[in-house]
């Protein structure tokens, strides 16, 4: 079963707060109930992989000003059939930043989130079942802004609320310093 590895990862993961614990269960139920969960064509929603990228001192995070959503978010994207969500997060982080200094802090899940994506022409409103992994990078390395972004920026962890009020961004910021 191509969903087995993700289900094992989710079984081992413990959410940071009651909301995240509920989202872990929601993602698990979605994966169990939808054989096509990794396919973007699944109209109700699909799995996505993301990278929470911090500098080595864990004082700043690299955010993208997402072109379609107009929000400052972590880097990431659709699985597009790939069941290894960690590989998706790694690929998206590299493609969307151009950073060669990216290094995983751990291959274990760092955070999860389920969020609604607004309808657009030819695409109904749907959910992203997002699994996130923690990466470090050298903040002095020059990054590349991809076509999916309006901008990229290293944002001081303590200044994140000025760029984003997304609860999951703020939750990942709180967790950043806890992981060794």
In whole angstroms, the N-to-C terminal distance is 32 Å
Q: Uncertain segments of ≥5 residues (pLDDT<50)?
A: none
Q: What number is the mean pLDDT?
A: 93
Percentage of residues in DSSP E strands:
25-35%
Structural class by sheet pairing and helices: alpha+beta
Number of separate domains: 1
Per DSSP E runs of 2 or more residues, the count of β-strands stands at 8
At the third CATH level, what is the topology name?
Nucleoside Triphosphate Pyrophosphohydrolase
Classified in CATH, the superfamily is: Nucleoside Triphosphate Pyrophosphohydrolase
CATH class: Alpha Beta
Largest sheet: 8 strands, mixed
Radius of gyration, Cα only, in angstroms? 15 Å
Helix content: 25-40%
Order of helices and strands: HHEEEEHEEEEHH
Task: Please name the CATH architecture.
Answer: Alpha-Beta Complex
What would you call the shape?
Answer: globular
Q: What's the number of helices?
A: 5
């Amino acid at each position: 079963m191509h969903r087995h590895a993700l289900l094992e990862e989710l079984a081992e993961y413990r959410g940071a707060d009651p909301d995240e614990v509920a989202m872990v269960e929601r993602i698990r139920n979605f994966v169990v109930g939808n054989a096509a969960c990794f396919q973007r064509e699944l109209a109700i929603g699909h799995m996505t992989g993301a990278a929470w990228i911090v500098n080595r001192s864990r004082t700043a995070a690299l955010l993208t000003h997402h072109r379609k959503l107009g929000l400052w978010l972590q880097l990431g994207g659709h699985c597009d059939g790939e069941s290894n969500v960690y590989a998706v997060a790694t690929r998206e982080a590299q493609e969307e930043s151009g950073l060669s200094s990216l290094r995983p802090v751990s291959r274990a899940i760092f955070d999860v989130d389920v969020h609604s994506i607004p309808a657009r022409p030819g695409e109904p409103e749907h959910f992203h079942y997002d699994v996130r992994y923690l990466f470090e990078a050298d903040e002095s390395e020059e990054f590349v802004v991809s076509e999916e972004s309006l901008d990229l920026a290293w944002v001081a962890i303590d200044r994140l609320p000025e760029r984003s009020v997304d609860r999951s961004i703020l939750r990942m910021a709180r967790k950043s310093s806890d992981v060794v």
